[in-house]
Write a structure and sequence with these properties.
Blueprint (H helix, E strand, L loop, with lengths): L1 E2 L2 E2 L7 E7 L14 H13 L4 E5 L12 H18 L4 E4 L3 H10 L3 E4 L9 H8 L2 E5 L17 H19 L6 E4 L8 H9 L12 E2 L5 H7 L7 H13 L4 E4 L2 H16 L1
Parallel strand pairs: 3-4, 3-10, 4-5, 5-6, 6-7, 7-8, 9-10
Antiparallel strand pairs: 1-2
Length: about 280
């Protein structure tokens, strides 16, 4: 896969995506990077630590989060994206499910759209991605951030998610998105129970049968805290364990808050996998 004229070799390397939240209300680092200068400083720090992609989000999608209007999302995200593309030399991903936000950020120089609604939330999203030829991360979610954790239920967690992701891929392909630009995310914590999350990680190789790169975003999430008995900012060891197991089971990209530690852990994991 070619992103920002950089070749991503998903067969031999697991890549690290660093999280840059511009929101005042994200579950672990809300309010930390709400001004442009602090956001850029954080991004540059992640680059120093070896990050491969930076994922920028301006609307919280934590359980129970409220919807924000497009104008507010643009106000938060666009100045940061404009600075990032001119000051750092790695791909920029935009965490949004709104096609207008996606298009404005792509015009500003973003390279990937990370859609938590799997192209099913906005009928124009797939068309915008196809129009500009950027990459897309298609995520699975049951419900919306506001209600997704109230009572998620599945007949078969793995097969149900695979089926839903397959539908999203069809939406992408029909709109003209290149298969080479598609990445899939089973959506850890997005309409999933504690045991669902563990099952997804354990059986991640099942998603490889869809024949697209897989992203896992479990960093600091509730099921890790439930196991460790720790608050979000004290879950590093759990985050690393999930990252390593996910990479070994077939994940191509790991989306994280702690970049330096994850980069090192994944280098070791890849060394064992590729030996």
């Amino acid at each position: 896969m070619l992103i920002k004229n950089k070749e991503f070799d998903f067969k031999n390397k697991t890549y690290t995506m660093g999280i840059l939240n511009l929101t005042p209300d994200s579950f672990s680092d809300g309010g930390s990077y709400t001004d442009v200068d602090s956001a850029i400083e954080r991004a540059k720090k992640m680059v120093e630590e070896g990050v491969d992609i930076i994922d920028v989000g301006a609307e919280s999608t934590r359980p129970g989060a409220d919807y924000i209007e497009e104008e507010e999302e643009l106000r938060r995200i666009l100045p940061v994206v404009e600075r990032l593309v001119s000051e750092i030399d790695i791909p920029i991903s935009i965490d949004t499910y709104k096609s207008r936000i996606a298009e404005e950020c792509i015009k500003a120089g973003a390279h990937i759209i990370n859609d938590i609604k799997g192209l099913k939330g906005d009928p124009n999203m797939a068309k915008i991605i196809a129009k500009y030829g950027v990459s897309v991360i298609i995520m699975h979610i049951q419900g919306t951030p506001k209600n997704m954790q109230k009572n998620p239920e599945y007949d078969d967690i793995i097969e149900d998610i695979k089926g839903s992701l397959g539908e999203s891929v069809e939406i992408a392909l029909k709109a003209g998105v290149s298969p080479e630009n598609i990445i899939l995310d089973p959506g850890i914590g997005f309409g999933k129970t504690f045991r669902d999350n563990l099952e997804i990680i354990k059986k991640l190789c099942e998603f490889k049968k869809l024949e697209y790169p897989i992203l896992i975003g479990a960093s600091r999430k509730g099921f890790i805290g439930e196991i460790l008995g720790t608050p979000p900012l004290d879950r590093l060891e759990g985050n690393l364990a999930v990252a390593v197991i996910s990479a070994y089971n077939g994940a191509s990209i790991i989306r994280v808050h702690e970049v330096k530690e994850t980069v090192r852990a994944l280098k070791m994991t890849d060394a064992v996998k590729n030996n």
